[in-house]
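WARN retry 2 of 3 for item q-0093 after timeout on previous attempt; input resubmitted unchanged.
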Amino acid sequence: MSGHASPAASAAHGVATLVLELANTRNVSRVELLALACSLLGADRTAALLWLWEDRWRLLVLSRYASNVVDDKAPTQLIDLVAKPSVDANECPNDPRDWQLGIDHQQPLEKWARAHGFDKFEAILPVTVGERVGGQSSLRTVAFIQLLSSSEIDANARRNVEIVCGGMALLLTRSRDARRLDAIQELLRAEQRGRQIKEWLELAADKLISITNAEAAMMFREAPDGYEAVVTRGKSTPKVPPLASKTSVVTHVALRRDPVRLLDFASDAERMEAFGTVEHDLVLHEVMEGTLLHGPIRSVLLAPVVFEKHTLAVIALVNKKADVHLARIFSKTDEEVLGNVCGFLKGVLPSVELYAALGEMANVVSPKSLESPEEARRVYDVVVKMIPAVAGIALIRNQRGAEGYTIDMFGGSLWTDDADMLARANDAFRPARGAAKGNYYRSLKIPETEHYLTVELKRKTTTGYENQILLFFAKALSHILLAEKGREDVIETFAQLRHAVRSGITGVVGYVNECLGCFEIYRQMKYAPSFLSQARFRKALERANFAAKKSSHLLEESRFLLTNITRESLKLVNQSVSVVVVAVLNTLKPYAEERRIDVSFNNELLKISDFAEIDRSLVEMLIFNVVDNAIKYSFRNRALHVTLDGTREEWSLTVVDYGTQILERDMEAIFLPFTRRPTGHAAEQRPGTGLGLAVARQIARAHGGDVTCSSIGVGHDAAETTFVITIPKTLRKGLN
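OK item q-0093 returned
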């Protein structure tokens, strides 16, 4: 017999091979392994029960049943026996290996076994898995297989079933790992594009019911007055989604931000242990039992979807189905599956919510929102839908030309009407007082304005995506407010343009009429004019010429609002720069005399260096605008110095006036369209469009040069302001 295995060993080897094949088959079930155990006992009537160790309650719960006797009523009878397993924690050992099924339903189970012809039911075999704890390998008992038989179980049969226990351990480990991933894999396979938040929650509810075998699932989302059930899955759907009250287990889970698994929902002791209170939402309880389940709530599994310490949603799984699970309670693996789904939703919901929020916000925020109370309320309703904790939202306006702020409400209410206080919140959460105690307010500065968006909330924090929603809202308001200001500026500018054109035309007509009058007098009197009359006649023509030039330049400047001056658009000629400068100064001479400004011109440019490639009409406008600006803002009875200089490569024109100082922070602003030189209230009364310096710089840069400015205080309320025009004599290629 040496070298040959015994029949028992050969049989054991065959069983082991079969068990490994079954355990490694993806679709094999726990019931099939139990059925194999029954067949190995070799008796007329056999049954096998799988008891799982539940760490949460230190309890063994009956999970599966198999028998070689066909009895459809047996599983239902076992469910009734173990529907509500109860254990005294003080009597139960911590290690399941020490258990001999010392639970209250042992005697009823023995009575049931004998009634069904199972006289031998003492064999209880542990299902043990290997694991690593703290870097060391150890064995942990996770289940037991209890054998029921009509006759004695011999040693060989017991050894064969022990092999089945090993296969069951392998199957439990693999199936638990697979279940943890199944829900995530199915969600990942789902088409994500265009799916809304409710659709994601519906999909998650369906997958969870399928994987955990729950009878019902509910998805709750934050609402202004609590958490509202937005998705329900069960035997039927409530017509009105129930709202969880402050005492609801849903609210408790949302505040605790931890998952909760209840063995017996009706147990006050369990609720006290889980939440520190026995209170619960009776209305929601009745809706779930009466409409969703058509039966009592037993086992409950709840978990929050937490993003940045804020609960976005709460998922509730209610009642384990009894089709294959004899003990109808949710397991630790079910809790891990739900936790994985919550983790997946935590990564998906914020981005989906933000995308949906921005789209919805873009549809309601418009200029009408600041003009119509009905439109403003629409905006408020959208914000509250996206951020349910919002109690009030308002625009805090900085009044132009007046001190202090005013409040324009979008909706809800703010705890105070002190607009200055709200504006000083500086983007920090500050506690409200009085009747709104417990609320917090926050003010965000609206970009590129002096206004603020103030939000009062029923909590002290906002999530990252909620911040993005508020920032998007603030930017949308910024565009509206800037457009509003721009509209006012355009109206004011067109009024100034109208006034300037009218003044120019009136000047031309007036001086021409004066010339015609003088001419008529000379004609009627039939004599040559005196020197005085000739001077008057010449001065009238000069003023007419200035008015005409001013009007012409104004019309030319207006076209720069529609297009830019580029290198390609220049009409270059070789031109004497000094001739252009003198012509411009002669044109502006009457205006300078009106303001009693003494204009001096110093030409330091050598004749050999006087010529340059320029667009004469544009350079004439450039010099005209700079000198005209200097005359306009110079104090009366002061001198204005114009100096033409240059080198072999470039020419420059320096214009120095004496008026109010331009601050350093305003140096670039004066070159922007429609920006008037900031020199005080008196200067604001002077006519102009704010286009002159902007157009001047654009012309200079098109020629490859620039216009710069400096302003230095030289006394009380006086400054020496210098503009320098610098342009290359030969336009370099590639400049625009």
